[in-house]
Write a structure and sequence with these properties.
- The two termini are 67 Å apart.
- It is globular and about 105 Å long.
- The protein is an alpha+beta fold and 837 residues long.
- 34% of the residues lie in helices and 19% in strands.
- Helix 17 packs across helix 18 (623-632) and helix 22 (726-739) packs antiparallel against helix 23.
- The structure holds zinc ion (2 copies).
- One zinc ion is lined by residues 459, 461-462, 503, 505-506, 508, 510.
Length: 837
């Protein structure tokens, strides 16, 4: 051990690397195996290692999860705090292409840099569990799970219009399209028809939605998932199509038209109570009926319109910013509830993939229908009247009210008519109550190189054949020229030695699937791999998973709310249904950090030139000061701007702790504190209160107030340093342990200098006596015009407002007020209240 000196200054650059080395040598953060302690699995989102490295913004995720891990170790838990790399996928491949470095090499290099930076900030990961999703030992099991889903009917191939990013040369899942652009390169996304692999996430829509009520997640993330799943209850009913009227007009026409013998379509509505107000119906441009029912006079217009819609993305079509348009088919449909003929339009805001691909339109009670009706001069029929006042008619009335123009339902509250009309339709046999979801199946194939090959063989005789389990992994061949070619096929399709193979079923010549799996497949199960990364009898070791899972705390940003977080829940449920795990939610508790913006308030980005790296801050101040600052700067979940001036508070605090411990060292050597000082009791109470506050704040993810509590504590001790007693010495020992999860290096150094056993991170977390944490009381002097008139007992933590109120209530004071309000009240906090009358 180093010799302690009572004057040596705090020098983070000397302390920090030394302890980091020692921690690594002694494997201090190795996960304890097979013991009786309770387990705590603390996990950060699986990061994709980018060439830019970590910014201080990323550290706002990694530092808090590190505090929680360290805290739980001291609380006596067996903690697993692992880290791995989401190395496969589009982000890594795009970056590799941009920089001209093969992704196999770049992802390794970048991961090593992340690991270096994480060590630099003192993160306590168990590196013996590090995994990479691009390693064959890992993706073998990603492929295995894909085949399991295939076996369970949850993976299928279909020709489908897909979101195509021409710049990335690949398809994108719906969640990966942001405002009509690609989530990675922000170029416009177009539609294209391709044979694709899908995962049937919709089979779990109900459960994915229902269990959002059972998890402890930030409300805004739950809201995003619920909205994405988009459950709605309604009625689906059938409309029979009639032929075009003589003049192709779009008004109501007496029902004498020619019938299309078998032509009918169904619509879904969440508002059956408005069905009497339907004045037109709309089909999606892709609806199979469009061609059949279009009248000769309208054919050219309809075909032009359909062709234009085909070239648009779904996002563009659904955009609320554009005005809706459509084209009349020349055909009519009959509203089954009242026999009215209504014109049938084609419009691109209706999507074939959602619902039935057709809608009823009620312009009086739906704003989009209203605008459409105004544009094409279609009738608007009010069927629900507001309970209070008249309907102005200048926009749709979408609320509830009283039924009008609705036959037998007139006069009923609309909420009641909802059920009545639904029941009538069911009885009549043309309608049924149903539930619909906005979420659709997960498009999982990518026409790209850098991913796990989809383990399927295409055989002319046998169709799609799964690769046998004992032939996994289907290795991703090393391909120096891995750039997408723009023909909609993966670069693997160019490689005959990869493509040509024998059919596992019949032995005949066959071709391998050349698409790779979406990178989100890899991250949908990685949390199951950490408990035993070497396991080779299955994707995960069932015994270890039973011991560690579900994850006790998951920490990461909201940007994955409807991607990774939804997919991982889906895979977990499918694995549970297979009987491989005994829980259905992988992450019962999720914490999501606010964004750390650059000093200019913008997102930190390399192109913006405003990235602050942990490297530069650690070089200037040290890791512990950076950590304290990141924790202290704002509540964990709040967005905040980087402000380097603010770091001096953190710096001052740790310097103060350092000097307090030097003073305590003198106490111990008998240079002070001979007698019990009058402040002893106060110090002890403060100590217990601080332990309580810090403990409760860590549990509640309130790291900023936990740091504030320690700062106040240090300041209070500072005031005692002229006459430090045994309580002072004891207090600094507790302060060091409280500080250990937050500023692990300085705590370790001070602990060692104090003569404590290695390591402070293996000491037990301080406990408190609740009796000593309750508020203390003080005597408050009450003066009237400067003369003492009363003394009242109040809480030591009384605020000015309360002190003023209590003073004015005093009977003795009221004698001097004579029922008049005081001219002025001066409060000297903690001491006196002076009332001027
Ligand atoms: Zn793109
Ligand atoms: Zn075959």
């Amino acid at each position: 051990m180093r010799k302690s000196s009572s004057t040596e200054p705090y020098s983070p650059h000397e302390i920090e690397p030394r302890w980091q080395e020692r921690w690594a040598e002694t494997a201090l953060y190795r996960t304890p195996e097979g013991n009786e302690r309770p387990t705590f699995y603390c996990l950060d989102f699986f990061p994709y290692p980018s060439g830019a490295g970590l910014s201080v913004g990323h550290c706002r995720n990694y530092v808090p999860s590190d505090v929680v891990s360290r805290y739980h170790r001291m609380k006596g838990y067996a903690v697993m705090h692992p880290m791995g790399w989401d190395a496969f996928g589009l982000p890594a491949e795009n970056e590799a292409i941009r920089k001209g470095i093969h992704p196999r090499d770049s992802t390794r290099r970048y991961a090593a840099n992340y690991r270096r930076q994480m060590t630099l900030i003192g993160a306590s990961y168990d590196w013996e569990r590090e995994i990479s999703s691009a390693h064959p030992k890992y993706y073998r099991w990603t492929q295995w799970i894909f085949l399991l889903l295939h076996k369970r009917g949850l993976a299928y191939r279909a020709l489908a219009p897909v979101n195509w990013c021409a710049s990335c040369q690949t398809t994108l899942a719906n969640n990966e399209v942001e405002g009509g652009t690609c989530w990675r390169c922000h170029q416009p996304v177009i539609r294209r028809d391709l044979q694709q692999w899908f995962l049937r996430i919709t089979a779990y829509a109900d459960e994915l939605l229902a269990e959002t009520d059972k998890v402890d997640w930030p409300e805004h993330i739950l809201a995003m998932q619920r909205n994405w799943i988009g459950r709605s209850e309604g009625v689906e009913f059938d409309l029979v199509v009639e032929g075009p009227a003589r003049d192709d007009s779009t008004g109501f026409v007496a029902g004498t038209g020619r019938n299309h013998p078998s032509a009918s379509f169904s619509v879904f509505t969440t508002r059956p109570d408005t069905v009497y107000g339907m004045t037109f119906a709309v089909l999606a441009p892709e609806h199979p009926l469009v061609d059949q029912i279009t009248s000769p006079g309208q054919r050219v217009a309809v075909e032009v319109y359909v062709e234009r819609a085909r070239r648009m993305t779904e996002i563009e079509r659904l955009s609320t910013e554009r005005t809706c348009d459509g084209v009349f088919t020349g055909a009519y449909a009959v509203n089954p509830v009242n026999g009215r003929r209504v014109p049938v339009f084609v419009a691109d805001y209706v999507l074939l993939a959602y619902g039935t691909g057709a809608i009823m339109s009620v312009p009086a009670h739906d704003q989009r229908d209203y605008e459409f009706a105004k544009k094409y001069d279609l009738p608007i029929v009010e069927v629900i009247r507001p309970v209070l006042g008249e309907w102005a008619g200048d926009q749709a009335f979408e609320g509830e009210g009283v039924m009008v123009n609705s036959g037998p339902f007139d006069g009923q509250p609309s909420a009641q008519a909802w059920g009545g009309i639904a029941a009538t339709m069911e009885r009549a046999g043309y309608g049924r109550r149903t539930v619909q979801y906005r979420m659709r199946d997960w498009l999982i194939s990518r026409q790209r190189y850098w991913g796990a090959p989809i383990p399927i063989v295409h055989c002319r005789q046998c169709g799609t054949v799964p690769v046998p389990e004992n032939e996994l992994p289907v290795m991703l061949p090393h391909l120096p020229d891995y750039q997408p070619r723009g023909d909609g096929r993966s670069p693997l399709a160019n490689l005959p030695e990869f493509v040509d193979c024998a059919c596992p079923a019949c032995g005949g010549p066959a071709q391998r699937e050349t698409d790779t799996l979406d990178g989100f497949a890899c991250s949908s199960w990685y949390f199951l791999r950490f408990p035993d990364r070497e396991y080779d009898q299955g994707p995960f070791n069932p015994e270890a998973v039973r011991h560690w899972l579900p994850v006790d705390l998951y920490v990461g940003g909201a940007e994955h709310a409807v991607m990774h977080l939804l997919y991982a829940r889906f895979w977990t449920k499918a694995l549970a249904d297979e009987g491989l795990i005994d829980f259905r939610e992988p992450f019962p508790r999720l914490a999501s950090q606010g964004i750390l913006h650059a000093a200019d308030g913008k997102r930190m980005s390399k192109s913006g030139g405003n990235v602050v790296t942990p490297d530069e801050v650690v070089e200037r101040y040290g890791a512990d000061i950076l950590r304290i600052y990141l924790l202290f700067m704002a509540p964990f979940d709040r967005n905040v701007n980087w402000d380097e001036d603010g770091i001096t508070g953190a710096e001052r605090f740790l310097h103060r702790v350092w000097r307090l411990c030097q003073v305590a060292g003198r106490v111990r050597r008998g240079q002070g504190g001979q007698s019990r000082s009058p402040g002893e009791g106060e110090v002890r109470r403060m100590t217990h209160k601080t332990v309580r506050r810090v403990t409760e704040d860590i549990e509640a993810f309130k790291f900023n107030t936990a740091v504030a509590a320690m700062m106040e504590y240090a300041n209070a001790l500072w005031a005692q340093q002229e006459d430090p007693g045994p309580a002072f010495y004891e207090a600094t020992g507790i302060l060091i342990r409280l500080l250990a999860p937050f500023a692990p290096h300085i705590a370790e150094e001070l602990w060692a200098r104090r003569g404590g056993a290695y390591s402070v991170h293996q000491q037990s977390w301080p406990t408190y006596d609740p009796a000593l944490t309750v508020d203390d009381t003080i005597d408050l002097v009450v003066q009237v015009n400067g003369k003492v008139r009363d003394r009242i007992v109040v809480s030591a933590e009384v605020d000015d407002e309360e002190a003023r109120r209590l003073a004015l209530q005093s009977e003795r004071v009221q004698r001097y007020l004579n029922g008049e309000p005081p001219k002025k009240v001066i409060v000297v906090p903690g001491r006196l209240v002076n009332i001027v009358v």
